[in-house]
Amino acid sequence: MSDASFDTSIQMNARGRGVQITRNDCFTQACRAVWAGDESVPAAISDAFLS
Q1: Within 13 Å of residue 21, how many CA atoms lie on the same side as its CB?
Q2: Closest Cα partner for 32 from 23, 42, 22, 21?
């Protein structure tokens, strides 16, 4: 998971956007990507991604 997040930030920079995603943002976005719907992510799942 961390390798994929790291690769994403490199790809975004390579495209000239100058945007780096922080590690916490990567995990938060990944958590949202696998948790469908508008309801909030349960704290236990969010904590697992952010720890």
Answers
A1: 19
A2: 42
